[in-house]
Amino acid sequence: MGREQEAAFVNEPNLYRVIFRSNKPETKQFQDWVFSEVLPTIRKTGRYEKKPAAEPLSPKDMSNLKRLVWMMTNGMKFDNAWNQGVWYALRSATGRPSPQPFSIEDLPALGEECMRIMKITSAVHSAVYDFEKDVIRKVVRKRGAIEPLLNEMRLKLLELQQKENDGLLMLDKLREHGRSRHIIGQSSNSPDRASITTPD
């Protein structure tokens, strides 16, 4: 009576919560779905249809993905740790936790993440290859000091890290050392012929 009243605004989901209130914990998930998805969709479109399940990757696509991961991690000293790390990164990039299968909707994210990781592993392979070659030639054969080579290796790794931070890594040295032909070919170590760990 004569006093100013403060207006309170309630959005649509919360309005339905007030009307159909239930404090039972087991109903909360159902309420979230009805109030936040079903009812607003009916209001906007006049009907609600359940979204079809995403189509999972075909066995052939999954085999190709496993082969690609093997290509990236094969030859690393800690190949199992690399393998685990790559699969973790792919799961994170797609937002699809294990054991959910990857779907065709994930292909763009999978492709982008595989390119990012392949640039890193290619650069690491190249740096390690050059380091071992120099150690054999300059230290083992010519009895030179190893410290300069270690320092050079550290600088290369720092440069690699900086390039990764700047997004400038290039896939330019993998073929130089004949790895592509060996990796892509049907070798006895290929994932088609050997078991592989896929922590997905």
UniProtKB/TrEMBL annotation:
User: InterPro entries per the record?
Assistant: BRO_N_domain (IPR003497)
Entry superkingdom: Bacteria
Matches recorded under Pfam families: Bro-N (PF02498)
Q: Which stretches make up the Bro-N domain?
A: 1-46
Annotated stretches, region: Disordered: 180-200
* Ranges of compositional bias, category Polar residues: 185-200
Q: What is this protein called?
A: Putative cytoplasmic protein
Q: Which organism is it from?
A: Salmonella bongori N268-08
- Upper lineage: Bacteria, Pseudomonadati, Pseudomonadota, Gammaproteobacteria, Enterobacterales
